Amino acid sequence: xxxxxxxxxxxxxxxxxxxxxxxxxxxxxxxxxxxxxxxxxxxxxxxxxxxxxxxxxxxxxxxxxxxxxxxxxxxxxxxxxxxxxxxxxxxxxxxxxxxxxxxxxxxxxxxxxxxxxxxxxxxxxxxxxxxxxxxxxxxxxxxxxxxxxxxxxxxxxxxxxxxxxxxxxxxxxxxxxxxxxxxxxxxxxxxxxxxxxxxxxxxxxxxxxxxxxxxxxxxxxxxxxxxxxxxxxxxxxxxxxxxxxxxxxxxxxxxxxxxxxxxxxxxxxxxxxxxxxxxxxxxxxxxxxxxxxxxxxxxxxxx
Length: 303
What we know:
alpha+beta, Rossmann fold, D-amino Acid Aminotransferase, Chain A, domain 1, Dna Ligase, domain 1, 3 domains, five-stranded antiparallel sheet, four-stranded parallel sheet, 10 helices, 34% helix, 27% strand, globular, disordered C terminus
């Protein structure tokens, strides 16, 4: 099978893990930088050029799209969808997952538990809105961020208002969210592949830090999920439209609260912590889908 990995970082752990897994299973694997793809329209059928040559003969693509290039990455995926190529991540699902507020809106609409949050385009009512979150402290997040960047804990009202106003002056949209103190700086990451949870871990922030991202020095251990948590994770991935996803949630006094559904979850941390060959499971799932002659669920609806 001819499989493309769309990645701007050929040497990244996740990219290399997927490459090795595919080669071990006898597939022709290739890494393509989606930022360098050229999309041709018209002439009867869509076409993609890479380094001046048409990309042809692919059975599947595995997108690893960074947050800084979401829009163009989605356009590349959409072109592959129009060409009838199976994609692990659909273009619409990628864009939905990258917008934190949009993701939470879809989850809340489905009556899944999410933290109390607000998005505002003006600053006159900030103190009132923050009080509605039972804060401060509150967490302030840029809508598109990764690895904990653009996520700030505001301990008091004056700081919270100042931070939101500073972001607004720069033309940036932020989400303000309640701070779940009882989580103790820990969250749960569950990895979904093809409608199954294949691995899960508990990430603990280091002392003096509330963000539990491994890139921020957090530690992690394998973590079993309750039946309720497993059901919640699978529903969240399904609502966002992702077959392969990292679903993050906090354990609170009210039960689990969904924080994020990640469309390009990293493999290094969770494979290392759990010992699960997640890349291999992704490749095997791609094989099943291609042999069944299926596009990704989102792609199939769009074509």
